Fold:
Amino acid sequence: MKLGEILIEKYHIPAVYIDLALKEQKVSGEKLGVILDKMNLVPPEIIARAIADQHNYEYFNIFTSELEDFECDKEIIEEYKMIPISVDNEYVTVGMVDPFNIDNYDGVMRYFQKNNKKVKIAIISNDTYREYLERKTKISVEEIKKYLIGNQTTFTNKDLSKQLVDTEKALRLLLLKGIYEKASDIHIEPTLNGGRVRMRIHGTMNTIMVINEYELLRLINVIKLISTMNVAEKHVPQDGRIDGTFLKNERYVGVDFRVSAIPNWTPERLVESIVIRILDRRTSIMPLRDLGMDKNTLEFLLSCKNRSYGMIIFVGPTGSGKTTSIYSTMATINAIEKSIITVEDPIEYRNFLWKQIQVSPRLSFADALRSILRHDPDILFCGEIRDRETAEIAFEMANTGHLVFSTLHANDSVKAIMRLRELGISRGLIESAVLGIISQRLIRILCNKCKKPISDAKYGVIYAAQGCPSCNWSGYKGRAMVSEMFPFEEKTYHIVDLVLKENVISAREQLTKIYGNMYLNGIEKVKEGITTLQEIEEKCK
Ligand SMILES: [Zn+2]
Structure:
């Protein structure tokens, strides 16, 4: 099968995109996958997945699976565009962007044969490759310090602005270091005669650098300035935020920094302590069928591209992969013939076929939606409905010829309806506008190398987590989605009715009868040996 056919039939990519790329191919002569990537028509992970299918290779995605990572020369990684994935006694598994390039392929084979290993190849996307390089990048303390050291005695205006620019650079490097090292937060705090910078990495605090008083004060001032705090105010706690765009690189728009400053009294002086929490929400668009959702949800989402109005709502806690589901659904919609606008906070993935708006303190969800109305999009993704005003406009749009995707803070699909009522949406509007509600969670996938069969009284042979070097002794590797579906259609109207009458328990019972639920979907995954019973009990009850 040709790559274009696989993309259309198996991954539901609009045929128009393939036609366009094929036309371009006649001119440039490049490979179809390369063109689709260059023209931003198909998300990189979907292209890689389809190429793997076409040639019967494995596929590896760094955003959903964990690397075992083993020693490998940097030159090999860069020259052949490959990444080390895992190793055992006999084989190494490496990811390659283009193993069809004979030079690359031969180079990799020679390198590992020299080391007495057989090679298994998995296809990776350009995005996965770039992400790997980024995680390998090290920013040294010396580099950061270079921009922190200034002339502390002469404070002419000219020096001041240069110092500001330099300190901003130092902060940028510090934040990047935090991202690269996967730190959850960065602490900038005074010590007896200066200050120190610490990072919490995998739950442990590490001192990154020691700085002098001048450096500390400059760093604190710049952080307060950039995160829109009152720089002069030192006596009360303040909160602020630094946008990913501060890093001046497209790749980090999905990262968000929450800043908190507290006055920190020492006998000699009043200096603040600052904590920067790093929220790395970057995600990738994946083939819908790979997300692990149940069959009903998958079928429902695949049918979205044929709808012209209404609202589809995703519920689940933060970090349950709702945005990935929405992005992946939207990737199946023809964005060349339809106009797609997103309003997000923050933008977690850039797709150049969509118009994407970042919400900010100066631009609320409701304001953004109001201005979008005039652009009359066919499809709208409203990142979150969290207030009455946003809810009203989003529902008005859904009811007047726009297909709207959104997320809602609620525990499950039944409770979501009650939440909408709380937000002031009328019963009639809920019934006429909502097409369906999807509730989802992310669960951990058992490590294939160490999972242990056990017998369970109810389910027979299932697996337990154990731990080995390959999974960092956690017993798990990678994550998958469990979901439940509540479509609004004739046979479920009586259930909507039950919820509106606050008869939640029987509503849930009736819904389970027709569509199952998240817990049952999770149990399926336990029986298939994908995850543990414990994981489902914890996350899906
Ligand atoms: Zn393991």
